[in-house]
Amino acid sequence: MANQNFNQQQRGANYGRPTASQHEPVNLKSYDFKKWIKSQIDNKTVEFADKFGMQIKIGGLTTSQIRNFFGEMRRIQMKGFENQKPSFFLLKPKLAYAVKRHDNKGMRNFYELFDEVYRLIDVENVVEGEKNYKNMMEIMEAVLAYHKFHGGRE
Fold first, then answer.
1. Which ranges of the chain does DSSP label H, i.e. alpha helix?
2. Which of 15, 122, 142, 152 measures 20 to 30 Å from 53, CA to CA?
3. Distance between terminal CA atoms of the chain?
């Protein structure tokens, strides 16, 4: 029993994963967000979410700092992207305000990701816009899940 506990402690949740000090910063330009937003997410999306979740955790982003913003994104999704376009357009300035208010690297990194995917949403075509927004939400949700997994605090 003691040996089993020792092995679990040795491995931990991040066994085999880079630690914060070993983490390479994520270059957003090296990922195909257009494909993920316009078509579908894939395994590379999940790998990105894992790395980026670690990066925003290291940068000091807390779940409470992003909760209201993510809640607004979810509300837009639930009420329908087409009906909530004005709210969608206001997401970017709301997040910009949060970046300045909280003033940490993790929040700035999250804003940079949001800006990257926000520009890819088709606001003219109803069907494509809904699909694009759904894919964006899946990416953001995966990033926030990995942020929490890597120890993102409240």
1. 2-11, 33-38, 43-58, 63-79, 85-102, 105-118, 126-149
2. 122
3. 33
Q: Centre a 10 Å sphere on the Cβ of residue 65 and count the other Cβ atoms it contains.
A: 20
Contact 128, 37 (CB under 8 A): no
What are the phi and psi torsion angles at 150 (to 5°)?
A: -80, 5
Q: Is-contact 76 83, C-beta < 8 A?
A: no
- 88 within some domain: yes
Q: Does 26 map to a domain? A: no
Over residues 48-105, the pLDDT tens digits come to 999 999 999 999 999 888 888 999 999 999 999 999 999 999 999 999 999 999 889 9
What does pTM read for this prediction? 0.82
Task: Say if 20 falls within a structural domain.
Answer: no
> Which tens digits make up the pLDDT trace of 102-145?
889 999 999 999 999 999 999 999 999 999 999 999 999 999 99
Number of structural domains (the chain) is 1
Residue-range definition of the domain harbouring residue 83 = 41-149
Handedness of CA 52, 117, 29, 35 (dihedral sign): positive
